[in-house]
Amino acid sequence: MLGGRLPGLQAPAAATTVSVLLYLPVLAWLIGQGRLTGAALLFAIGAGVFSSVIPYAADLLALRRVPARFFGVVMSIHPVFAAMAGLILLGQVPPPHVWLGILVVVSVNAVAATPSKPVNTFPVRRDSRYVGQQ
């Protein structure tokens, strides 16, 4: 609702502000329990910035500069990157049905993004004798 009314990156900034305000009670509870440390606070801020703010802002800026079809294909490749990161960094091997699902999504988006050409099944004659005749 708010994202359509605010220009540029103001919508994600507003959403982040609302999120911070909603987490203030959790912050108060952690301080009250004595469980809030500087490292934990830095990790939380880093996770918020690197997992939400930067990717969302990059997607928003890219969407304004590239065609929507191309953007859709690039967005459909994100699960491939996530699967590869899990495989390389965490040693998680996705089962075959996961790879098949990713392949289907990327393929469908690639086909949908391919510009279609109109197909002429009948040749068009430009001879004036045939105009209006069937």
TrEMBL record:
Domain EamA per the UniProt entry, residue ranges: 14-106
Q: Which UniProt keywords apply?
A: Membrane, Transmembrane, Transmembrane helix
- List the GO terms this entry assigns under cellular component, sorted alphabetically: membrane
InterPro entries xrefs:
EamA_dom, EmrE-like
Q: Does the keyword Transmembrane helix apply?
A: yes
User: Any stretches that span the bilayer, and where are they?
Assistant: 12-32, 38-58, 70-91, 97-116
**Family named by the database record:** Belongs to the EamA transporter family.
What this protein is called in its record is: EamA domain-containing protein
